[in-house]
Design a protein that fits this description.
By secondary structure, the chain is of the alpha+beta class. Helix content is 40%, strand content 18%. The protein is built from 16 helices and 17 strands. Strand 10 and strand 11 form a beta hairpin. Helix 8 packs across helix 9. Bound molecules: histidyl-adenosine monophosphate.
Length: 438
């Protein structure tokens, strides 16, 4: 049996690689418009980096082992801890706010399902040094602008947003003991997928009173205006309502208001989030989350030793790729095909010196050139060029009328009948001009 790749790990054949590049290029193009700069970190880190703060689920999914130097290490399951470590080490000397992005490959031993593999690439966009909600709005704007750049509109996707501080203030108002908050988050996170009685039982088991269980179970349908009406009298909630209103106003001014859905069930699985959190979903509900992130104001002091507010998001390539293909927004024929195919009559013995010279000349001018690597009949060469999607076909012929037996070049480009060129220069200039105009 020939060896297979591991389950959940992808081979990228040229078609898939081209799609991956299309996604990466689009990510980079948009993120740079927001003046973020790119960084990277090691794919292998100490195990400890993740066990302290990433949250239980990710820790159970780690690819970890003991290396030959007896160190407990793990393949990175997410980028945020490495980011926090790196920023912490140099934070004092860096201009704030820090705006960094990265496209790491991440590894999680997940239960495999649609949209979930054991490796994926994830765009990470993070911002450090701003505690104002304006920074949260800027961040969500990056994520949504990326969606638009791919051709996805508010008719395709939405951003579900919440705020852990607002949620905490509401729990406080309901007199839910702080020790139970983590359990409340876990229940809210699963509230749409888990039977109601299981959610209720879990809340009760965590020490939440009967009346508060009723209130929490109602969180899933609550609009922001409901929160204001029902909880706005509480001073703690009132403060958070003002913050969140400023956030919503900024989103509207940034032109992305139409994407936003307030949703208290978005708490995010990771343990480190402290404020506004969000996830992007397709509106048909066919796919898992495309993107998730939020504010994590305490992580830099835990992992980086500096007390700086921070926020960011991760957007994976797997769900996004599935969605783009499903909506026919993934371009076809992304692969780099030859601009020019050079062919010569199989009767010509001097093959291939002139072909090689011409190919070198055209390539030096930036054109992609292919020619057959063994002698072939002209009709076979033409066929091969067509199958390869070559844009121009050049037949190199010996010019028997010329006294020094020079060459002439016959160009077929599918659009008009053959054009003839008497010199390499004339042909080259014609092809370059054509390329520039296309
Ligand atoms: P996350 O929600 O775990 O957040 O992942 C973010 C996105 O990565 C998900 O919405 C999904 O698109 C993709 N993703 C996650 N796991 C997989 C998987 N097994 N297979 C395919 N795609 C996956 C984080 O990782 C945070 N560290 C993001 C962040 C950055 N927060 C602040 N800065």
């Amino acid at each position: 049996m020939p060896p297979k790749s591991l389950p959940g790990f992808r081979d990228f054949y040229p078609e898939q690689f081209a799609e991956r590049e299309f996604i990466f290029k689009t990510w980079r193009r948009v993120v740079r418009r927001y003046a973020f700069v790119e960084y990277d970190a090691p794919p292998l880190e100490t195990l400890e980096l993740y066990t302290s703060k990433s949250g239980e689920e990710i820790v159970t999914q780690l690819y970890n082992f003991v290396d030959k130097g007896e160190r407990a290490v793990a393949m990175r399951p997410e980028m945020t801890p490495s980011f926090a470590r790196m920023v912490g080490a140099k934070a004092q000397s860096m201009r704030k706010p820090i705006r960094w992005f990265s496209i790491p490959q991440l590894f999680r031993y997940e239960r495999m399902q649609k949209g979930r593999l054991r490796e994926h690439f994830q765009l990470n966009v993070d911002l450090v040094g701003e505690s104002e909600a304006l920074a949260d709005a800027e961040l969500l704007s990056v994520a949504l602008e990326i969606m638009r750049e791919f051709g996805l509109s508010a008719e395709d996707i939405c951003a579900r947003v919440s705020d852990r501080r607002l949620l905490n203030a509401m729990l406080n108002h309901l007199a839910v003991p702080e020790a139970a908050w983590a359990s409340v988050y876990a229940v809210l996170d699963k509230i749409e997928r888990q039977p109601k009685d299981v959610s209720r039982e879990r809340l009760s088991a965590a020490g939440v009173s009967e009346s508060s269980v009723d209130a929490i179970m109602g969180f899933s349908g609550l609009a922001f205006s409901d929160v204001v009406a029902q909880y706005g009298d509480s001073q703690l909630v009132g403060e958070q309502v003002r913050e969140f209103t400023a956030y919503l106003d900024s989103l509207a001014a940034l032109g992305i208001g139409e994407f936003i859905r307030f949703d208290l069930t978005i708490v995010r699985g990771l343990a480190y989030y402290t404020g506004i959190v969000f996830e992007l979903f397709d509106l048909h509900g066919e796919f898992r989350a495309i993107c998730g992130g939020g504010r994590y104001d305490k992580l830099l002091s835990t992992l980086g030793g500096v007390d700086l507010p921070a926020l960011g998001f991760g957007m994976g390539d797997v769900v996004l790729g599935e969605l783009l293909r499903a909506r026919e927004l993934m371009p076809q024929d992304l692969n780099n095909v030859a601009d020019v195919w050079l062919a010569q009559p199989d009767s010509d013995d001097s093959y291939p010196a002139i072909t090689l010279k011409l190919a070198t000349r055209l390539r030096s001018r930036g054109l992609a050139v292919e020619y057959p690597l063994r002698r072939q009949r002209v009709d076979k060469q033409f066929d091969a060029a067509r199958k390869a999607g070559a844009r121009n076909f050049v037949l190199i012929e010996r010019d028997s009328t010329s006294p020094d037996a020079q060459y002439r070049f016959r160009l077929r480009d599918g659009s008009h009948s053959d054009l003839q060129f008497a010199s390499v220069d004339a042909l080259t200039e014609h092809l370059i001009m054509k390329q520039d105009n296309s």
